[in-house]
User: Which sequence fits this backbone?
């Protein structure tokens, strides 16, 4: 679905973008960047990487930017194909107490592979909690799909670390 033409030369931004695509496509946690073996692999591929610091916190911010860059093409892709889509939510809190709530679309493609695509991402401000979401199209990330969604979560973000 997406083409990977994110770098011609190694730079901090191109490395972050390549890592974001890799982590998302392989469904890996951002904490993989803490791994000594992962750092050694990057350095083996290109010794100049040792001068470019890649941390989970900086990748989290860059991941949000990459998602918003592709958000419209993801919505168009899901709407243009006649597929049955299921929706789930997931929430997380970063160490700086920034909370995020994501809406993910899931479907099975023609090769019978389960595909999961994040279609909505919002920052939850204030104390870390996940509000109850009721059936509504108004102001929702799902309004282009003309389908209401219902999500009932726990009272705190810590109670619903993963709802998928």
Assistant:
């Amino acid at each position: 679905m997406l083409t990977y033409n994110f770098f011609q030369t190694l730079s901090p931004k191109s490395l972050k973008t390549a890592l974001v695509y890799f982590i998302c496509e392989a469904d890996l946690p951002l904490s993989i960047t803490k791994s000594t073996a992962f750092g050694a692999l990057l350095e083996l591929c290109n010794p100049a990487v040792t001068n470019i610091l890649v941390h989970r916190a900086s990748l989290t911010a860059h991941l949000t930017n990459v998602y918003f860059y592709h958000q419209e093409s993801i919505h168009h892709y899901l709407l243009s194909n006649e597929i049955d889509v299921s929706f789930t939510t997931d929430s997380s809190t970063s160490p700086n107490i920034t909370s995020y709530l994501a809406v993910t679309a899931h479907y099975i493609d023609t090769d019978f592979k389960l595909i999961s695509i994040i279609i909505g991402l919002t920052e939850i401000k204030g104390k870390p909690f996940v509000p109850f979401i009721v059936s509504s199209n108004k102001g929702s990330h799902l309004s282009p799909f003309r389908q209401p969604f219902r999500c009932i979560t726990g009272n705190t973000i810590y109670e619903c670390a993963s709802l998928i």
Summary: The helical segments are 12-25, 36-45, 56-80.
